[in-house]
Amino acid sequence: MKPPAMDRRHFLKLASASGLLLPSTFSLAQEATVDAETRFGRVRGKRINGVNVFKGIPYGADTSGSNRFMPPQDPAPWSGYRETFDYGPAAPQSDPASGRQQDGNESENCLVLNVWTRGINDGGKRPVMF
């Protein structure tokens, strides 16, 4: 005798009851890479739950040496894709005299943007957080 076919709804009930499925608040993030074009070159970021995330995109050249306290200059253009998966350096905030340290990467060369947006090159206007 052949067992009856199990429909999707019946399977989901059984899987939920047995603990095979996680509650929706614990859902796993869906991630993929996404590419975009900037004035200085192409960047590759991540698409996480429908949001395109680009971290550490340079918008200015190195600010040390003769560039210190000067208006920002354009960064050197790059070829190929620049991976923008991680945050760039933060402006120095630590105070060595007091022993207070800022967590993470600090550098004077900190002219980078972190961008979150839902759309790229689709003609739509929407807010962009950076």
TrEMBL record:
Pfam families: COesterase. Keywords: Signal. This is Carboxylesterase type B domain-containing protein. It comes from Pseudohongiella nitratireducens. Residues 1-29 form the signal peptide. InterPro entries: AB_hydrolase_fold, CarbesteraseB, Neuroligin/BSAL, TAT_signal. Residues 95-108 have a biased composition (Polar residues). Residues 62-108 are annotated as: Disordered. The keyword Signal applies. Residues 37-130 form the Carboxylesterase type B domain. The keyword Cytoplasm does not apply.
